[in-house]
Every structure is written in C-alpha cells, then in structure tokens.
Design goal:
By secondary structure, this protein is α/β, with parallel strands linked by helices. 39% of the residues lie in helices and 17% in strands. Bound molecules: zinc ion.
Amino acid sequence: MNSLIVLAYHSINEKPHSDQTAPLSVHPEDFEAQIRYLLSRGYRNIRADELGLKSPSSAITGKRRFLISFDDGYKDNYDVALPILEACGCSALIFLSTNGIENSSTGEQRADQYHTEISIPYMNWDEVRIMEAKGVEFGSHTLSHAHLSSLNSDTLRQEILQSKQLMEERLGHSVEWFCAPYGDYPEIVYYIVRQHYQLSFLTYAYRSVLRSRPDVISRIGVYGHNSLNTFKLKLLRDRLRIV
Ligand SMILES: [Zn+2]
C-alpha cells in the first residue's frame, strides 16, 4: 500500500470549475476541502525535503503523509493558494516553467502560453521569493514547458539544466526537484535529469516504470471538474497502486 500521497495541481481560482474547458483550474473551496479531507483522515502534510534523497520511500514508509505540488508557476498560486495553505498549516512544492516567471518579472508576458485552454498570468520572482520565505519549495518544470521527447539532445539539456541554473541564480541555493511537462519523460530525459536533480515527479506514471526508478515520485492530478468523491476515488486508486 502506498502511504505517501502527492497531489498535482496547476491553477487555483474561482473560474467556473464545472467548465470543462478549464480543467486545470481548481476552485479555492474545492482545494481547501481536499486538503482538509486529508488532514481529517490523519494525513500529515510534508515538505519535499522530508522525502530524503534518491530513495524517498524509506523515509515515509508506513506513515500517512501527503505533499501538495503545483505545476507551471501561476500567479494565483501566490494570490489564492498560499493563504489557503497557510490557513491549513500546509506547505507546497511548485514546479516553475522559468521562461514564464522570467517574462512575468520583466512585464513582457503575463499569461500562460502553453495551456491554451486557460489564460492565467505567471508569478514573478519576487512572489516566488516571498513564497519561499513562507516555506514553499520550488523545483524545475523546464525553461519553456516543452514536449521533451520532441527535442534534440542539446535543446533537451538546455531545458533541463538552464532552468535549474536560472532558479539557483534567482533563489541563491541548489534546486533538487524536477517535473517534466505533460508527463513526457522518456529514458533519455530520465538519464539526464538524474545526473542533476535528486528527485523527479510525474503524474500517473506507469507502475512498471516507477519500480525501476525509485527516484521518480508518482502524483495524483487534481482538476477543476473533480468532485470530492472523485478526489477520494483517486486517492483510493493511488493507495492501491491502480493505474
Ligand atoms: Zn506544466
């Protein structure tokens, strides 16, 4: 049985969450209800740095733990999700597409250019640093949110390494967690990532893949159209390792 739950969100905002065209946005009330449900079931929220290095399972085996992650780096993570996290006494791990954060910081581009079904601005580096001071952790989600399997090896290395270097420059410490956009995580990407990061995270990774990759953490994707019952069902499937 899996006792570590890792949730994967994108945007938390009040856009109509029954709208199937915006499944990446979870309503703030649903987000809070999902966190409080886990807390009420005896799950303790943990930070990624509590997972240990390279073989996280040994650090948390047999304990009810959950980790909250976000992909991309949307501004509403700062404006909307952070106050809810603080109210619940929880932290989060946010994977940044660094071009989005960089452009948002210079005012060149504010809206998501990758997920065309939504148009939500990215946070800037000041907001990233404020969140970090409040205990939120950050990992890399590449430079440009690319489909990694479509890139040649030079571009691939740039996406994986330059995003890490830029984050380390901007934040002043090492960055040890990576998440591939679209769950696009072929062998070559894994090979490069594991040379430069401690752990990587995927949504709905195949169990056969995970068995041979102890440094890859499986996550549960939570979307705007998921009811609390669907959320509970996803937890159960994850717990039973059904994918
Ligand atoms: Zn993404």
